[in-house]
Amino acid sequence: MLKIENYINGELVKPVSENYLDNFNPATGEVYSLIPDSDEKDVESAIEAARKAFPAWSKMSAEQRHDCLMRIVSLIERDMDSLAEAESVDNGKPKSLAKAVDIPRAVSNFKFYATAAMHTATEAHETVGQAINYTLRQPLGVVGCISPWNLPLYLFTWKIAPALAAGCCVVAKPSEITPMTAYLLSKLCIEAKLPKGVLNIVHGLGAKAGSAIVAHRDVKAISFTGGTKTGAGIASIAAPMFKKLSLELGGKNPNIIFADCNYEEMLKTTVLSSFSNQGQICLCGSRVFIERPLYEKFKADFVERVKQLKIADPLIKESIVGAVVSRPHLEKILSYIDLAQKENGKILCGGKQVKLEGRCQGGYFIEPTVIENLAHDCRTNQEEIFGPVVTITPFDTEEEVLKYANSVEYGLSATVWTENLSRAHRVAEILESGIIWVNSWLLRDLRTPFGGMKQSGVGREGGFEALRFFTEEKNVCIKINY
Ligand code: NDP
Q1: Which ligand 1 atom sits closest to the C-alpha of 230?
Q2: What is the pLDDT of residues 290-324, one digit of tens each?
Q3: 286 lies in which domain range?
Q4: Which of the residues are catalytic?
Q5: Do 319 and 245 share a structural domain?
């Protein structure tokens, strides 16, 4: 069976303990590879390698770093199909989705930051008659990047690309649940001749390998994407050490549909924003609010379309709904469907585990589920489920729906459907979300600030913001003697 290895100091190495964890294929429920169960000893040697690589890497020109990163891009593009298949097997998502979204986005992340670093400029402030100040931005040193399982290579590269482009050296930990494409990336980094120690990938459990990265005194910043509770734990260790922190956390996003919307466009997109990647995208809209005059029509049409989504082996091209990522996650989602019923929710479609035949008979499949008749403040409508489950709720006024939308502790993203421009502006201003899509969903421009408010996180990724995160700013004040 394939044994994944850590990538430390430019080489693939076993974990010091030689202990491994099982890696499951969610579509079959079978173990198909083994993951290093790394601990603080592996993290220590990764950090040591990164520290040694830092002086040379940070002093390279942005163009030289660009060239290194673009060599990795060419190799990802070359291996697009095999990487997409690996992502699908590891995560359970349809291969077609991995090939259309996840792997191309990893390419874009590297391209965007490799080139962005060549276009940075810094500020100068003239204190008239006295001095000129300029801002010097220097790479922080060794930084830690920790990513989740839902968009494995996509979110992993979203962190390491700006860190590397800014001149930092990285110790990264992908989710132990989906380590495969990060492992394949490490092989591509070797082939691309990325200098040794610049990027180090340590596999293993969050509580062991992840927390060793967070707690290490030589790691200057942590860029983390994952659950809110994990983020709070990381902050409690990193904040007293005065590390820089970027936390992208959970969500419970509202999708607000006004009766004057472009109906067909809204309906098509709402199916996607509810169930893409089995609802396991932090930006999925899990609470759908519909203006009352449209409610019954929307309900009938939406449920009909959701019932048509094909649940199948993620490797076949007809598959639209793949497996959810793990057995514990499957059980968590099913427990929320139970809870919804206890809270008087009425299941309009779905609600059950699906047993496929053949190769996928042991896989973790759940029917896309639509639930109505729930109060906006019940647990089902307040807590993150992170699966193929949405609730639908009617509303009468703008004020009422904004109260519902903002009633959760999260504030990641929101979607608004209306043809009324003034209303779109008004609602966007009041919504407590870091990202607001009007008449669209997941339309991304990598230059824009990405992140959430409230318990959805601290800081923003994306654009020059992410490059700045990985640098320390200095003000240099030069007195002028006239
Ligand atoms: P987790 O918080 O469980 O894990 C995220 C990462 O942190 C994993 O690599 C995990 O390792 C690691 N980790 C866990 N415990 C620690 C620790 N004590 N110290 C350091 N690292 C640790 O999240 P999930 O992987 O379950 O991802 C789902 C969550 O991510 C959802 O809440 C979702 O909303 C959120 N998310 C947010 C996004 C955003 O942009 N705001 C985007 C995508 C997802 P391991 O799994 O190996 O134990």
Answers
A1: 2
A2: 999 999 999 999 999 999 999 999 999 999 999 99
A3: 254-445
A4: 248, 282
A5: no
